[in-house]
Amino acid sequence: MDRQDLYYWLALNRIPGVGQVTYVRLLKQFGSPQNVFQADPEVLAEIEGIRKTTALAIVKFKRAEKIDRELDHLEKEGIGVLTLHDPTYPPLLAEIHDPPPFLYFRGRPSAQDDRSLGIVGSRLGTAYGLRMTERLAWSLAQHRLTIVSGLARGIDTAAHQGALMAGGRTVAVLGSGLDIIYPPENEKLFHRISETGMVCSEFPLGTLPERQNFPIRNRIISGMSLGVTIVEATLRSGSLITARLALDQGREVFAVPGSIESFKSSGTNRLIKQGAKLVEHAQDILEEIPHGEKPPADSERDASMEVTVALSLSKEEKQIWDILSTEPVHVDQMVRQKEMETARVLSLLMEMELKGMIKQLPGKWFVRHAPDEKV
């Protein structure tokens, strides 16, 4: 899209009285923002949601230097604008009642995002919640689902990290302008996501992360996704707003159960009572939504890997290898199954990791890792 067209996309968003729903109605009626500005005021006034004052504001609009300055700023910062007419605009998001007419973004849009899953939860996640989130995001990303979250502290951060650890795609939706990274400690994560996925926002540059922005942001997380998984939410958590928005948008709602003694899981446990699907493993989610399969196994590669394993692992290491798979297995499970001391199992796992046969995930979870596989 050239600069002139983009100018009108931004300008129409600045007209008082033109919200997301009205903006989309205008697009459907006139085809483009530029055509809207060239329309007859009487025709504009006939559009549902357009008052006479709004129609006059559109007709009398004159080129604004501040919009040209914004375009210069976007270009300087390397920030793109993804409009509803762009073929790479998230297809699920375009279906909701009030899609943002455009998104500011860093990174790259992808057709893969038609298979997205939102994961959100407490900003003060427990060790259990963070571990479960990373594990779920890792497994779902392995099945080529895009993980969508909000870059917030706690569960959101764990969701993005889990997807990145799997070499998968993740999208972060901000409640601020893209030039204001919030929380600031996630700056490195922000840039990592931008390199392989996408960070986006409907808020103009310079917008602060104010409280009222986050419910608005949450409809994008749920709108981009086939379903939303809630991990650790209190009864007053903003994550429950995301769950409600997902239901309103016709999306699936999943919840990871927590201790009945923990107030941090009171909201998620209530969601399960109300009909959200209880999630213990990634498979519980994969059963309900379409997803890309894992890359097909190559029989020759697998056979070669098994020969390598047989030659390079001791008898005890081979016992551990047989327990592991491409799904994360916790060290405690290995201890129970092989009746070994924890210290011995950890020692064996360290040796196997040094040989490149396995990979450790946060929280003492382990997966098989082929010797020739890219990390």
Write the layout of secondary structure elements.
Blueprint: H1 3-12, H2 20-30, H3 33-37, H4 41-45, H5 52-59, H6 65-77, E1 80-83, H7 91-94, E2 102-107, E3 116-121, H8 127-142, E4 146-149, H9 155-165, E5 170-173, H10 187-196, E6 198-201, H11 213-223, E7 227-231, H12 238-248, E8 252-256, H13 266-273, E9 277-278, H14 282-286, H15 299-312, H16 315-323, E10 329-330, H17 331-338, H18 342-354, E11 358-361, E12 365-368
Parallel strand pairs: 3-4, 3-7, 4-5, 5-6, 7-8, 8-9
Antiparallel strand pairs: 1-2, 2-6, 10-12, 11-12
Helix pairs in contact: 8-9, 11-12
Attribute tags:
DNA polymerase, domain 1, elongated, 375 residues, 18 helices, 12 strands, 46% helix, disordered C terminus, Arc Repressor Mutant, subunit A, Rossmann fold, 3 domains, alpha/beta, single chain, three-stranded antiparallel beta sheet
3D architecture notes:
- There is one protein chain.
- This protein is an alpha/beta fold and 375 residues long.
- It has 3 domains: 3-72, Orthogonal Bundle (DNA polymerase, domain 1), CATH 1.10.150; 107-286, 3-Layer(aba) Sandwich (Rossmann fold), CATH 3.40.50.450; 299-368, Arc Repressor Mutant, subunit A (Orthogonal Bundle), CATH 1.10.10.
- The protein is 46% helix and 13% strand.
- The chain is built from 18 helices and 12 strands.
- The protein has a 9-stranded mixed β-sheet with strand order 1-2-6-5-4-3-7-8-9, with helices on both faces.
- Strand 11 (358-361) and strand 12 (365-368) form a beta hairpin.
- It is elongated.
